[in-house]
Amino acid sequence: MALSNPRRFVRRAQNEVLVPSGRLAGAARELYCRLVPNRSPLSRGNPDRLLLVYDSLCNPVTFDFLHYIYYADWLRGELGKAHLDVMLVIRKNVSASREEHYMAAIGADNIDWRVANIIMPLCRQFAPAGRVYVLDHEEAFEVVKGYRHVHPQGYGYASPKSAECRLDAPGMRFRPTLIPSETARSVIDAYFPAEDARRLVTVTLRSYAYLAKRNSNIAAWAQFAHDLDPLKYRTVFIPDASPRGVATLEELAGCEVFAPACWNLELRTAIYERAWMNMGVAGGPLAISGILENAITVMIYDPASFPADYLDSFYRTTGVVPGEGPAFYSPRCRFYHGSDNTETIRKAFDEYAS
């Protein structure tokens, strides 16, 4: 093997040193560990790393996480640190600290489900992210003590602070940092081959039990898809990743649906990246498209569908100008004001498709 495939030989040798499979290699590993001192004291304090602590007790376990990790990476640059690490702190019985009607809508185990199926996959696709920890809060405190630079400052066992998310920070600008794997891209290429000359248009639907006024007008989106020229456009629906979203499949009879993107975040990112245009109501997973480089993103934004206290809190804590996207969204991401009726959807498409 050393002659026929030297790279593989070296990798095998390295793995054998790390995890010995025989007595001789095991003895060599033991001798090495005795002679070479533990290197952790040499890196104590992680001086070249910023740690983002994202605690499920006090931070939104939603796609808003993209805003928080973007801000933390901007902060890393401002501090002159080379690496951004992320620690996801898992809490038991977190439902007690959430709004009762929110927990009733999403289910008791949904916070943990979202950490595993939304937050973790987003971390893995966020290019600047280095180490990613998923820990209980007591274990998390021990890790925090090993960092000199932590966001939010002062986070600890006795002070589980929420991460800050100032989207109006000076110098925050678009950088394509959300990158799906080549495997995910290959899967999407298989579903939507380059030989198909039609323009790929995705429609991301919201059909959620919480704040139902923000949900998509599914009938209007289906009509929009039927009205597009099928020889020029290939319109694909991505339903909501929720039990209620599954029920919308019946309302999309006769439309093309790409269900895998509901449950696999990398495939969702990859199809957004592959598409010519991604459309939907503002918020949620469509934020992924908003920070990709090439696709046009059209978010239909209706402030009347958001509770007033929610909008007030969001604008006050993030600094975003009402009705506009964060400064680090792609220049190809547009907000179109209005409700998602058939006329508004078509106007938005025609305006941004030109």
Your description of this structure?
The chain is an alpha/beta fold. It has 3 domains: 6-36, no CATH class; 42-151, Rossmann fold; 182-353, Rossmann fold (3-Layer(aba) Sandwich), CATH 3.40.50.2000. 39% of the residues lie in helices and 16% in strands. The protein has 14 helices and 10 strands. It has helices at 6-18, 23-35, 65-79, 100-106, 110-125, 137-144, 182-191, 218-227, 243-247, 260-263, 265-274, 286-290, 308-318, 342-353, and strands at residues 49-55, 83-90, 129-136, 150-151, 199-204, 233-238, 256-257, 277-281, 296-301, 333-337. The strands form 2 sheets. Strands 7-6-5-8-9-10 form a 6-stranded parallel beta sheet, with helices on both faces. A 4-stranded parallel beta sheet has the order 3-2-1-4. Helix 7 (182-191) crosses helix 11 (265-274). It is globular. Residues 39-43 have low confidence and may be disordered.
Q: Which helices and strands appear, and what pairs or packs with what?
A:
Blueprint lengths: L5 H13 L4 H13 L13 E7 L9 H15 L3 E8 L9 H7 L3 H16 L3 E8 H8 L5 E2 L30 H10 L7 E6 L13 H10 L5 E6 L4 H5 L8 E2 L2 H4 L1 H10 L2 E5 L4 H5 L5 E6 L6 H11 L14 E5 L4 H12 L1
Parallel strand pairs: 1-2, 1-4, 2-3, 5-6, 5-8, 6-7, 8-9, 9-10
Helix pairs in contact: 7-11
